[in-house]
Design goal:
Elements: H1 4-19, H2 33-41, H3 54-65, H4 67-77, H5 85-92, H6 103-114, E1 122-123, E2 131-132, E3 136-143, E4 149-155, H7 159-180, H8 184-187, H9 189-204, H10 206-219, E5 226-227, E6 231-236, E7 240-244, E8 248-250, H11 254-259, H12 264-282, E9 285-286, E10 294-297, E11 306-308, E12 314-315, H13 319-333, H14 337-347, H15 356-367, H16 380-393, H17 403-419, H18 425-440, H19 443-460, H20 464-518, H21 522-545
Helix pairs in contact: 1-7, 3-4, 3-5, 4-5, 7-9, 12-17, 12-18, 13-14, 13-18, 14-15, 15-16, 20-21
Length: 546
């Protein structure tokens, strides 16, 4: 049942929607009647920002609603194929220009986290935030112990309560969807919200973010694709994180990248390669790659290097998920839609009784038009809409474990559009995936797997004879039990058959007795009653024994 705090939050969302006049986003002919009923019920609320343009009102409304809605705006800002440039430009301010909280509050939060005065740890602490985002903001300083330049990331005070209230409201709305909407079972909204809750709660813990960054940095150490700043783990707590300060050009600043003659084609290709490397080589990928978290190094513009920060959200995939994804991607690249359909059926993403031929034809109709076109001419949003319609026809279920991957792919596409619109995303990714698939079945990979498992097998080797003996003994015992059960079953069948014969005889005699009784021949009726009663008694005793 929805709580008072959740009702209050629902009211706040509707209040924000009305006060910023966001109904103007919907064509008047498509405004549902339920809105006008709601509008009458909330008659005291008015549009208070008529003097502002609609794009600015949209940004400010998302900003006022808090971190979950800010993240929605961040993702939309990268989708210039979905939004007009004036909207995308406004929402881009949500990437790192969210209003900061005061420097005094930041100092109190840092001192509370480290249990020490701030001047004992840092010199040159700048109370003006370098950047501010939905959950935390960063300040610059130098470490007192060695003078290294650092940034300190500190969470917003009270942010956990705001997020908890929003998540509870989303859970309530998801449960209503699952209960009352016909198509909700396929979309699995409750599971999706649970997955999102886990993700955003993890993002609140800066110690977890630090651990993620350390792992990602180790995976790309000395790489030409991606650089991750060093984390100073001695200065990390749940609410404060200290890391190396980096200098780079925001990836969204295309003019600055062009001014230093950055190789944008190579930069875009390396972004795609870095993403697929994280997913398929490491099974550990940065899942929040909006432009506010991605920079380009000033050094070597002809050989550009990505810089990734804010590793609060990462995704992982199982080996089974990776294999199915890689095989699906390659089947798409090769236009083998029958293989795509069969993979979806084999993986359980669609019901096992789905007609593969019909599914193949539906996928072909959606995907065939996207090939042999540059990225700038491909509307992946349109493709996704068509795929969802196809999914609805074939009862495909949403896979919660892939939600982060899907979101990150949207970010990658958005960045690719901004950097190098002519980039062929498929052509860039295909060789990488083909090499990865070959490596999975190569002798070297097999040898490496055997080498990893060899110590375990050697440890268990002396136990194998005993395990074989116990397995054989258990198999023999199971066979004996099966024979005993079969014998009991046969005996029971025979008893049931005899009981049915006696019961049938008793019923027959009872019917004959009743018929003769109607003829009023008492003496003959008595002779028939006795065997009928005896038959019923025998049948009753026989059934009790069985």
């Amino acid at each position: 049942m929805i709580k008072i705090t959740e009702l209050s939050r629902l009211y706040q969302i509707n209040k924000t929607f009305i006060e910023y006049g966001l109904i103007d986003l919907v064509p008047k002919a498509q405004i549902p009647k339920s809105y006008w009923i709601l509008r009458i019920c909330l008659f005291w609320l008015r549009n208070q920002h008529k003097e502002m343009g609609l794009p600015e009102r949209l940004r400010l409304s998302l900003q006022s609603l808090g971190p979950i809605y800010i993240k929605l705006g961040q993702m939309l800002s990268t989708r210039r194929d979905l939004l007009a440039p004036i909207y995308a430009d406004q929402l881009a301010h949500l990437q790192d220009n969210v209003p900061a909280f005061s420097g005094d509050l930041a100092i109190k939060q840092i001192e509370k986290s480290f249990q020490r005065p701030i001047n004992e740890i840092f010199d040159n602490f700048n109370e003006v935030a370098l950047a501010s985002a939905s959950i935390a903001q960063v300040h610059t300083a130098t470490l007192k112990e060695d003078g290294r330049e650092v940034v300190i990331k500190v969470t917003r005070p009270g942010i956990a309560k705001t997020i908890a209230a929003d998540i509870q409201l989303m859970k309530w709305m998801a449960s209503l969807m699952q209960r009352f909407l016909k198509d909700a079972k396929r979309l699995r909204p409750v599971e999706v919200i649970r997955e999102y809750e886990k993700t955003i709660i993890d993002e609140l813990d800066l110690m977890r973010e630090g651990a993620n960054a350390i792992q990602l940095r180790r995976n790309f150490l000395n790489s030409k694709m991606l650089y991750v700043p060093e984390i100073y783990s001695d200065y990390c707590t749940k609410d404060a994180l200290v890391m190396e300060r980096i200098y780079g050009i925001p990836v969204s600043d295309i003019e600055a990248l062009k001014a230093q003659n950055t190789n944008l084609k190579l930069l875009a290709e390396r972004g795609v390669e870095a993403f697929f490397t994280q997913v398929f080589r490491d099974s550990f990928f940065h899942a929040d790659m909006h432009p506010g978290n991605v920079f380009v190094s000033y050094e070597h513009p002809e050989d550009p290097l990505w810089i990734g920060i804010d590793c609060g959200i990462v995704g992982t995939l199982t080996n089974e998920d990776k294999r199915y994804l890689a095989e699906n991607f390659l089947a798409f690249f090769n236009r083998d839609y029958r293989q795509v359909a069969q993979l979806h059926i084999d993986s359980g993403w669609v019901p096992a009784d789905t007609p593969a031929e019909e599914f193949e034809f539906a996928i072909r109709a959606v995907c065939e038009p996207i090939f042999e076109k540059p990225l700038s001419e491909i509307s992946f949003a349109h493709v996704l809409i068509n795929l969802f319609n196809t999914a609805r026809r074939f009862n495909m279920q949403v896979q919660p474990q892939l939600v982060l991957l899907q979101k990150t792919l949207l970010y990658i596409e958005g960045l690719g559009r901004q950097l190098y619109p002519q980039l062929d995303l498929w052509d860039t990714a295909k060789p990488f995936l083909e090499n990865w698939m070959r490596e999975q079945v190569s002798p070297q990979t097999l040898f490496n797997k055997l080498k990893v498992k060899a110590p375990f097998w050697l440890e268990k080797l002396p136990d194998i004879p005993e395990l074989v003996y116990h397995n054989l003994a258990q198999t023999k015992q199971i066979q004996q039990q099966q024979q005993l059960l079969m014998q009991r079953f046969n005996d029971q069948q025979q008893k049931n058959s005899k009981n049915q014969v006696i019961t049938s005889l008793a019923v027959t005699l009872s019917i004959i007795t009743a018929l003769f009784y109607l003829q009023s021949d008492d003496s003959f009726n008595l002779y028939l009653t006795i065997p009928a009663v005896v038959s019923w008694v025998i049948a009753w005793r026989f059934s009790n024994k069985s």
